[in-house]
Write a structure and sequence with these properties.
By secondary structure, this protein is of the alpha/beta class. The chain has one domain (2-176): NAD(P)-binding Rossmann-like Domain (Rossmann fold, 3-Layer(aba) Sandwich), CATH 3.40.50.720. Helices cover 38% and strands 18% of the residues. It contains five helices and six strands. It has helices at 11-22, 60-68, 82-87, 89-110, 147-167, and strands at 2-6, 26-31, 50-54, 72-75, 113-119, 171-176. A six-stranded parallel beta sheet has the order 3-2-1-4-5-6, with helices on both faces. β5 (113-119), α5 (147-167) and β6 (171-176) form a beta-alpha-beta unit. It is globular and about 50 Å long.
Length: 183
């Protein structure tokens, strides 16, 4: 399969790229390297089935072209990190919401299966562990810009589900909690 990973130079994306290559897939990573690191994927550069495209999911034509040439998309690209989000909440909202809209629109146009990465942050202030995907969301107040990340990722989920409802776009949403490991 031809796989596109947005945000593939990040922690999760780089490990996913390794696994997909190991099973014989061709992998294209789209990453602007703002939070992902080239060092995470440097060791993949010699693989003839791997390529890195330095660019952003906000670049509509680039995103469209890469999705058109893929069989499936793992959409992991996002503005991440508390400092990043608090320092420039508008930029992080644009990346998370408008970038995801670009990805979903192109996936719907070419009917590409898409995995959308979300976050446990969408549970907000909920403390009823274990969490359930049908739990109500309880966010903090809007003046606390920290919550803009959680809200933008929740909106990504709503958009993905709306694309499924309107276009029957095959979409899967995963809410990541804290991740750890090498790199």
């Amino acid at each position: 399969m031809n796989i596109l990973i947005t945000g593939g130079a990040g922690f999760i994306g780089s490990h996913l790229a390794e696994e997909l290559l190991a099973r014989g897939d061709k992998v294209v990573v789209l990453d602007d390297l703002s939070t992902g690191r080239f060092e995470n994927i440097r060791h993949l550069e010699g693989n003839k089935h791997f390529s890195l495209v330095a660019g952003s999911i906000l670049e509509e034509e680039l995103t469209e072209e890469l999705i058109k040439g893929s069989d499936m998309v793992y959409h992991l690209a996002a503005a991440v990190g508390v400092k990043y989000v608090v320092d420039d909440p508008l930029k992080s909202i644009h990346i998370n919401v408008l970038g995801t809209e670009n990805v979903l629109r192109s996936c719907a146009r070419w009917m590409r299966k898409v995995f959308v990465a979300s976050t446990s942050e969408v549970y907000g202030k909920g403390n009823g562990a274990p969490f359930n995907e049908d739990d109500d969301l309880l966010m903090g107040p809007t003046p606390s810009l920290r919550w803009s990340y959680a809200c933008s990722k929740a909106l990504d989920e709503y958009m993905a589900l709306a694309y499924f409802k309107k276009y029957r776009l095959p979409v899967v949403i995963g809410r990541f909690f804290n991740t750890c490991g090498p790199r």
